[in-house]
Amino acid sequence: ACSDEEAIGLLEQAAALDPLNPEYHFKIGCMMELAERFSEARTAYRRSLEIEQSQPLVWASLGFIDARMGDMVGFIKNYDRSMEFDRADPELPGAVAYELYKLDLVDEAEPYLERVEEMAPGSDIYRLLQVERAAAVGDMELLSKLSRQAIIDDVSARGGFFESSVRYLIESAVALDQLEDALDFLDETVPDFGSPYRSGVPSKVSFARILSEPFLVSTYSAEEREQYAGDVRLYLENSGRNLDLSRELNIILLALEDDGDQLTRFYRDNVLDAFTFRGPRQIERQLFSLDLGKSLLEDSEIRRKLTGWDTALDRTRANVKKYLATPQNQLATEPT
Fold first, then answer.
1. Which residues of 88-117 are buried (b: 16+ CB within 10 A; e: fewer)?
2. Residues of 253-284 as b/e, b for ≥16 C-beta within 10 angstroms?
3. Average pLDDT, rounded, for the chain
4. Which is higher by pLDDT, 185 or 329?
5. What would the mean pLDDT of 157-177 be, rounded to a whole number?
6. What is the per-residue pLDDT for 308?
7. Three-state SS letters, the chain
8. How far apart are CA 292 and CA 258, in angstroms?
9. Most distant CA atoms of the chain, gap in Å
10. Is residue 221 within 8 Å of 183, Cβ to Cβ?
11. pLDDT tens figures, 213-222
12. What is the mean pLDDT of residues 313-323?
C-alpha cells in the first residue's frame, strides 16, 4: 500500500499525461481533502469542473470544501449547482437543510426540507432532518421522542444518524432531567453502550458514546473513570488516521483523567486551529458546560479564539440570510 502523498503523486502524474480527464482531478481533490489540504482540494475540484460541468458529485464535494473553509454561501451555491445536474438525490437538498439547521437558520432550511419530503418522504435523510429541526428550535420533548424512535429502528444505514440520535437523546434527557431514564433505555436497546471502548474496535456504538461523553463524564465514579480511561487509550490506538476522531478521543481521555491543565494545553495546541465553519465541534462545545471544561475559558488564547469564532458565525448567518433572501437564489418548492 502506498502513502497518501505517494497516491497524490501518482494521480498528479496521471493528470499530467491526460490533463483533460476530469476523474483524475476529482480523485486528487478527494485525496487532498482527506489530508485536510482544503485549498488544494478546492483547486483540484474546480479544475475537474472546468473540464466537465455535469458532475453533481464534484459540485457537492466543492461545496463541502467551501463549508470547511467557512464559506457557507459558496457551500449553498455549489450544492444548488449539484442539484441542477441531479434532481433525484434527496441527499443533496438534505445536506443543505442539515447545515442550515446547525446554523439555527430554521426558516432558511425549510424549502430544502420540503424538497427532501417531496423526493423521499419517510426516508432516513428526511427523518434525520426532523431530528435536527427539533434540536434547532429547542423542542427537547420532540427531540427525545424522535431520537428514541430512531434508536429503536436502528437507523444505521445512513451514516451518522444513529450516533447523532443517541447524542440528542442524552442531550434532551439532561435538559429534561431524565438522564437516568435515558440511560436505562439505552442499556436495554443498545448492546455494549455501557462498555463501548473495551474491544478497541471503532463501531457505531462507540461513536455514539463519544458524542455523548461530555454529558456523562461528571456522573462517573473514580473507578469508572479509571476503567474508561484505559479503554479509551486502547481505542485511541486503533483510531487510525481519522484526525477529528483522534482529537475527540484525546479530549475525552483528559476529561476522564480530570487533568485540567493538560486539557487546556491540548485544546489550545490541537483543537483551536481545527475548527470548522461552525467553530468547535459539538463535543468540544459541550465541555464548556462542565466544571472541567470551564477551566478552558480561563485561557486567554482560547477565549480570544472563541470570541473571534462567535463573531465569524454571526457574520456567516447574516451572509447566508442575505443570500437566500434574494429571490433568484431561493430554492423552488418543487423540482423542475
1. ebbbbbbbbbbbbbbbebeebbbbbbbbbb
2. bbbbbeebeebbebbbeebbeebebbbbbebb
3. 86
4. 185
5. 89
6. 81
7. CCCHHHHHHHHHHHHHHCCCCHHHHHHHHHHHHHCCCHHHHHHHHHHHHHHCCCCHHHHHHHHHHHHHCCCHHHHHHHHHHHHHHCCCCCHHHHHHHHHHHHCCCHHHHHHHHHHHHHHCCCCHHHHHHHHHHHHHHCCHHHHHHHHHHHHHCCCCCCCCHHHHHHHHHHHHHHHCCCHHHHHHHHHHHCCCCCCCCCCCCCCHHHHHHHHHHHHHHHHCCHHHHHHHHHHHHHHHHCCCCCHHHHHHHHHHHHHHCCCHHHHHHHHHHHHHHHCECCECCHHHHHHCCCHHHHHHHHCHHHHHHHHHHHHHHHHHHHHHHHHHHCHHHCCCCCCC
8. 7
9. 63
10. no
11. 878 888 889 9
12. 92
> Of the ranges 31-40, 57-66, 190-199, which is most confident?
57-66
- For residues 51 and 288, give the distance between their C-alpha atoms in angstroms, rounded to a whole number: 47
Residue 247 near residue 40 (C-beta atoms within 8 A): no
Cβ atoms of 251 and 284 closer than 8 Å = yes
C-alpha cell at 24: 483524475
Cβ 281 vs Cβ 244: under 8 Å = yes
Q: In one letter, which amino acid is 204?
A: K
